[in-house]
Amino acid sequence: MIAGHINIDHIDYLLLESTVFTEHTETREAGGFWKTLDTLTPDFPLHSDVVHQTFDSGCPKWAHDIKQQFNWLMHSMVTINKLTPGCFIPPHKDTMYRIKKKADNEQTDVSALKLVRINLFLQDKEIGHMFEMDSTYLKKYKKGDYVVITPDKLHSVANLGYLNRYTMQLTGFTHKDMFI
Question: Residue 14: which H helix or E strand, with range?
Answer without folding.
Answer: helix 13-17
